[in-house]
Amino acid sequence: QEQLVESGGGSVQAGGALRLSCTAASRYTYSTVCMAWFRQAPGQEREEVARFYTDSGNTDYADSVKGRFTIAQDNAKNTLYLQMNSLKPEDTAMYYCAASFAYPVGLGTPNAFKAFRHWGQGTQVTVSS
Q1: Do β-strands 93-100 and 79-84 pair in parallel, antiparallel, or remain unpaired?
Q2: Confidence category of residue 75, pLDDT binned at 50, 70, 90
Q3: 33: number of CA atoms within 13 Å, CB side?
Q4: Pick from 1, 46, 45: which is nearest to 24 by CA?
């Protein structure tokens, strides 16, 4: 099996929290340079919200989620997490995890998503007021 599978989405009230999970085949744990979470709301552009550099453990976040979201990886479980706290209605979107085997350009750079070649099917997050 060679795929990424997201889970953990759902509907919550503003101010609530969710933890998204992305389970991957072992290949991703050993070979992936960078993994990231993206989101896309209807009628809006795809946005990278967080990334994790597998070799160094370094992370980066979009300004819109800094201080609220945390990305982490559990190598033993071959799982990438996105802890989402203090959720806002504007966080409502389909969330995708993605993996790159090469170093992508910086988060927030236009077309940075193109470096991510492997994608999950997405998990929906809905935040109500």
Answers
A1: unpaired
A2: confident
A3: 9
A4: 1
